[in-house]
Design brief:
Shape: globular
Order of helices and strands: EEEEH
Number of helices: 1
Number of domains: 1
Structural class: alpha+beta
Largest sheet: 4 strands, antiparallel
Oligomer: single chain
Strand order of the largest sheet: 1-2-3-4
Distance between the termini: 25 Å
Radius of gyration: 16 Å
Helix content: 25-40%
């Protein structure tokens, strides 16, 4: 099934320090035109540039890796538990 992107909204965010993982709920349409919902996770590092303005990057430093691992694990746990709850109902 191929999805056509329609739009998405942030559902949940996990962060520690400057590293965050955001769970997005996406709405799309299948080839058959049916509405579908799926989730994605984005990972980013926030920092201030030399002018003091906040910026985002997907590039991580070596010391960012443990924090990235933690927020990704939390996002994964959230998605798995959410899926289990929806299957029970």
């Amino acid at each position: 099934m191929k999805e056509e992107f329609v739009g998405n909204t942030p559902e949940r965010k996990f962060s520690t320090g400057a590293i965050s993982a955001t769970v997005w709920e996406n709405q799309g349409k299948s080839r058959e035109g049916e509405a579908v919902s799926f989730r994605t996770v984005s990972l980013q590092r926030r920092y201030k540039d030399k002018n003091g303005d906040w910026q985002s990057s997907s590039t991580l430093r070596i010391n960012d890796l443990p924090r990235a691992s933690l927020v990704l694990q939390k996002a994964y746990e959230y998605l798995v538990l959410r899926e289990m709850e929806s299957q029970e109902n």
